[in-house]
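Task 17 of the worksheet. Students: predict the tertiary structure of the chain below and write it out as structure tokens. Keep your answer in the requested format; marks are given for formatting as well as content.
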Amino acid sequence: MLALRQQLYKNYGLFVQWQDCGLSIRKWEFNSPTGRQLSKKENRVKQIIVMRKDLKMGRGKEIAQGAHASMKATLLNLEHPSVQAWLNNGSFTKIAVGVSSEEELHSLVLRAQEAGIITALIVDSGRTVFKGVPTVTCCAIGPATQ
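Model answer:
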């Protein structure tokens, strides 16, 4: 964890620490590393969180699953140019959408992968909501440009 914290701070200006209330992440610089203002084109890097709506998860569960997807896509691809651009611009723009089935979710993931876009599929362990059954809940697509 220490090496990851150091890498996030060194490369992206993110300061990560545990506090009594949980994880705190702060960004020291909100512009590019060079200090110049980012262009509109550079700010178009976004991440899409796709949630399965057929599962009827509670709002808190959806938020947690979406956070898992975002973190997985980001942390497993820290060296990817799209992730670096997304982290460097400081806005962490996300778009949340829903699909009506697991098949539709897998279809979107496959299309994104075929286009060379980062994806992260989340399978919930089932310990709290899905009666012990591992369940595909959501995915992150990107960060990527529009």
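Marker's comment: The chain has four helices and six strands. Residues 1-29 form one domain.
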